[in-house]
Design a protein that fits this description.
The protein contains three helices and no strands. By secondary structure, the protein is an all-alpha fold. It starts with 5 loop residues before the first helix and ends with a helix.
């Protein structure tokens, strides 16, 4: 039985998650209104703060570029999916 090589497909998973995050982020900001739009912008704001902190200061713990490219968008994707589920539940309860 062949052994899986995690290093061969992990970058592709991160890249696919990052691409899906960007698409979902743009859609959520465009389609949602009010407080839902603010909730949708939270991961983007965190990503921008971490990126700027990485570029311009030494005050934050060292963040690898790989972490910013792969892990943060995957966390953002998970967060946006959770907000989308919460929004669907809230809209279903609000409908008569």
């Amino acid at each position: 039985m062949a052994r899986l090589d995690w290093t061969s497909w992990t970058p592709w998973l991160g890249l696919a998650g990052s691409l899906l995050y960007v698409i979902l982020q743009i859609w959520a900001v465009y389609a949602w209104t009010g407080s839902w739009r603010i909730r949708a912008l939270a991961p983007l704001v965190i990503l921008l703060i971490l990126s700027l902190a990485r570029l311009f200061t030494d005050l934050v713990p060292p963040l690898s570029t790989r972490f910013l490219v792969y892990a943060v968008p995957l966390f953002g994707l998970t967060y946006l999916l959770a907000v989308a589920i919460a929004r669907a539940i809230a809209n279903r309860r609000a409908a008569p």
